[in-house]
Structures are given as C-alpha cells and as structure tokens.
C-alpha cells in the first residue's frame, strides 16, 4: 500500500490510479474455500450454461472485494473505508484457460465532505463491459 492519502490533497474529480486484477479459475476455487460458496456456477461450465450463463462466473462478492481493494490501496489504510455500495450489473465470465478474466477498477472523487469524508465513484469493468453499477465508496481521510 501507498502512503495514506490526506483529505487536504483531494478534490472533486481527483482520479484514483487504475487497477487491474486477474481472476482465474484457481482464484475461484480459493475464494469458494474461503467464503464457503461452492455454487457450481463458479466452477462448472455445464451447470453455468444450463442456467443461462455464458460460462463459469466469478463470485459477485469477489468482484465487489476487488473494487474495494482498489479504494483501500489508494487510501493507504483499509480502515478508511467506512461505507460501500454496489449493484451487480453483469457477471465476470472466467474462461477455463491460463489467462482467465481481468477486472479493471477506475475511480474518481465525486464529493468531499466535512471532516475528511470523501465519496469515490467507481467504474468496474471486465471484458470491456461494466460489471458493477452505482459503485460508490465513502472513505474517511485524515
């Protein structure tokens, strides 16, 4: 992580560094073990396509966590994240190959409030498609 960002150093429109996170089938297995979510749509192509998905998809909460990681990497302090909201727009399809998928997170300061509260508006994509909608994080900066 970088040095903590100070409220005095940000303004509306400040952009966060773009972050890209690879997601492979092996990552899905590890996440399933950690979360206890062993739904076969996250590891079995036949099951995923039988329910109308284009293939195996990443866990929504994993996608959400990757976006939060981009915010906490920017703040330099994971405890700075005080509020976080997303809507799941599209699934992250994870091919069965060595490359997998990539989740890209871009952020911009949308509001600066009193006492160091800052709203960060996020754009989260995979394969050129927006996967999280209305993604917003509120952070408390020093």
Total helix count? 3
Q: Would you report the number of β strands?
A: 5
End-to-end separation: 16 Å
Shape: elongated
Biggest sheet statistics? 5 strands, antiparallel
CATH class: Alpha Beta
- Uncertain segments are none
* Oligomer classification: single chain
Q: Averaged pLDDT, please? A: 96
How do the strands line up in the largest sheet? Answer: 1-3-4-5-2
Gyration radius over CA = 16 Å
| Strand coverage percent | 25-35%
Q: What string gives the helices and strands in order? A: EHHHEEEE
Organism: Geodermatophilus sabuli
Family: Belongs to the enoyl-CoA hydratase/isomerase family.
Protein name: MaoC family dehydratase
Pfam families: MaoC_dehydratas (PF01575)
């Amino acid at each position: 992580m970088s040095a903590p960002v100070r409220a005095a150093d940000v303004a509306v429109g400040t952009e966060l560094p773009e972050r890209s996170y690879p997601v492979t089938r092996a990552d899905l297995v590890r996440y399933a073990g950690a979360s206890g979510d062993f739904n076969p749509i996250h590891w079995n192509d036949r099951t995923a396509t039988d329910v109308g998905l284009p293939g195996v998809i990443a866990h929504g909460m994993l996608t959400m966590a990757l976006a939060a990681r981009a915010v906490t990497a920017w703040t330099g302090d994971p405890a700075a994240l005080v509020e976080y909201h997303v809507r799941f727009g599209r699934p992250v399809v994870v091919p069965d190959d060595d490359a997998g998928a990539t989740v890209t997170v871009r952020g911009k300061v949308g509001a600066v409030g009193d006492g160091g509260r800052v709203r960060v508006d996020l754009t989260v994509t995979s394969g050129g498609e927006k996967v999280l909608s209305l993604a917003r994080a509120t952070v408390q900066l020093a």
